[in-house]
Design goal:
Blueprint lengths: L12 H40 L1
Length: 53
């Protein structure tokens, strides 16, 4: 896998660490956002159910 062009294209340890940390940060952010959206959707459905009764 070739490194992407830009500031992280170097093969130094720092560039590698920066790439890995940026990738894991993206994963963490994505999963947190997903959980938040799912919780929001659930509470929205509950509120809708209450409003209909």
């Amino acid at each position: 896998m070739a490194p992407p062009p830009g500031p992280y294209s170097g093969t130094s340890t720092l560039a590698l660490v920066a790439r890995v940390s940026a990738f894991s940060l993206g994963l963490v952010y994505g999963s947190v956002k997903l959980k938040y959206l799912q919780a929001k959707a659930k509470s929205h459905k509950k509120a809708e159910a209450k409003a209909h009764h």
